[in-house]
Amino acid sequence: MLSVFCLSCGNAAQAVDRLQIIGETMGTYYAVTIDSPGELDTEPALRDLVETRLNEINAQMSTWDDSSEISKFNQSDSTDWVPVSEEFATVVQEAVRIHKLTDGAFDPTVSPLIDLWGFGKPGRTAVPEQSAIDRALKSVGMNRIEVRMDPPALRKSVPTVQLNLSAIAKGYAVDALAKLLTTTGRRSFVVDIGGETRAGAAKASGDEWRIGVESPEAGLRQNEPPQRIVSITDASIATSGDYRNAYVVDGVRYSHTIDPATGYPVKFPPASVSVMAESCMTADALATAMMVLGCERGITLAEQLKVSVMFQTQQSDGTIVEEAVGRFAVEVPPKENASAAARSDSRVVFVAAAVLFLLAVGGMAIGVIVSRREIKGSCGGLASMPGNDGKSICELCTIPRDECVNEELRMQMNSSSHARDDSGDVTEDRSSMAANGDSAQ
Fold first, then answer.
1. Other Cβ atoms within 10 Å of 425 Cβ, number
2. Cβ-proximal residues to 163 (8 Å cutoff; 6+ apart), any chain
3. Which residues pair with 33 in a beta bridge?
4. What mean pLDDT do residues 191-217 have?
5. Is 82 exposed, middle or buried (0-12, 13-18, 19+ CB in 10 A)?
6. 262 plus 300 within the same structural domain
7. For residue 279, how many other CB atoms are within 10 A of its CB?
8. 46 and 158 both lie in a single domain
9. Is the pTM of this model over 0.70?
């Protein structure tokens, strides 16, 4: 999955006033940032509050925990109603809704196909036989799962059907933490779990939170600027990516985006899809579904649902082409912003140099002046976003991550980098919910 990360909108002094914790959950990282914390807010207290809540959700929906609710449901071969918690039923109910909205593109029962194609179990690089795919398809289909809310319970019509909610559960966990923070009086925050992000109310300064969406090229080049920097409040962004997990057999590339309808990997999936919606759970599921739907069908659905979506597609020459609707369509891409800033700076430098030439007494003076002028703009537009002191908040592309003076951004980037490094570039591979969960369809 591609990263979504929070960019501080203030100067270094303001960042000190914020409280942030970073940890591990669901096989990836979590990061919670609170603006203007109260007197009773401390790092240990906030961590305990957050991790207690995350542990509750894992106990319901982690397929890596044999005693969890989802594991017990999967282990059962009964077709009777199985009582579950209200939270578990709520997530499955949303999964059923998204399944119907996307004509089956979102399907949390697709795990048998993921394993068959070798994306759930590392090491396999062979194309399965059609007969094996047909057998697996008999245990796939969200239409084989029923859910009720009063009393909360699940039932499956086919005993071998297995649920895997990792393509929606991280988003739900983000929403749950956001609700927890809001109800305890912490209204201005950003919650990030493995790139699924929700921002709360605006900061004390009145500024919105700025969320950066990673470009697929970030996995190939260092200091790659974010594809988008979006200012949001009370909204969520989720991103699913594909390009990092695939294998080639006889010259054919097989991606881990599996189409539940055919049982085969999607031939030309997007490199990534980012969805902005009020609920992170909904955005999470839709981002996964749109990897299967593809750009044309996905854009049509996004317009019908009135959600903001950005597709990034990798061309044969390696370049990234994007199509977007909603907020993503009106935001200026940082890379274009960077180019414009560079052109603007170049014109300023040219005019300034001409004036200085007329005023200077010799070439040495000109050399000194020019040597002190560093052209900015290669940092994805961040150089044109000054803090309250009028200076750039972070030279994202010209200062190494470990030397960045913006502590909040540095910690976020380090956390995201470690999550990718630890999991071989795909954080879902070791998810406590399920291998390859939320980008596997």
1. 15
2. 70, 73, 74, 92, 108, 109, 145, 154
3. 20, 190
4. 91
5. middle
6. yes
7. 19
8. yes
9. yes
In whole angstroms, give the CA distance from residue 419 to residue 27. Answer: 9
Cα gap 125→127, rounded to integer Å: 7
Per-residue b/e over 342-366, b at no fewer than 16 CB within 10 Å? eeebeeeeeeeeeeeeeeeeeeeee
Closest CA to 81 of 159, 162, 156, 160: 156
As a whole number of angstroms, the distance between CA 131 and CA 165 comes to 27
Buried b / exposed e along 118-127 (16+ C-beta atoms within 10 A): bbbeeeeeeb
Residue 192 in any domain: the answer is: yes
CB 212 within 8 A of CB 320: no
Give one word for 309, left, alpha or beta, with left for phi > 0 and alpha for psi -120 to 50: beta
Flag whether pLDDT at 199 surpasses 80: yes
Residue 283 has pLDDT above 50, yes or no: yes
Please report whether residue 18 resides in a domain.
yes
Burial of 56 per CB tally in 10 Å (0-12, 13-18, 19+): middle
- Quick one: 152 and 287 in the same domain? yes
Same domain assignment for residues 211 and 98? yes
Say whether pLDDT at 367 is over 60.
Answer: no
Average pLDDT over residues 157-171: 95
Section 61-74 average pLDDT: 95
Looking at the fold, whether 412 and 295 belong to one and the same domain comes out as: yes
How many domains are there within the chain? 2
Residues 245 and 338 in one domain: no
Residue matched to tokens 């297995």: 162
298 with 425, same domain?
Answer: yes
Instruction: Report if residue 439 sits inside a domain.
Output: no
Does residue 440 form part of some domain? Answer: no
Mean pLDDT value across residues 348-369 = 37
d(CA 240, CA 274): 7
- Find the helix or strand (DSSP H, E) in which 275 lies: strand 272-277
CATH number at residue 272: 3.10.520.10
Q: What are phi and psi of 272, to 5 degrees?
A: -165, 160
Question: What is the extent of the structural domain holding 207?
Answer: 4-333+403-430
Residues 409 and 389 in one domain: no
Whether residue 333 is preceded by a cis peptide bond, meaning omega within 30 degrees of 0, is: no
Cα–Cα distance between 372 and 380 in angstroms, integer? Answer: 22
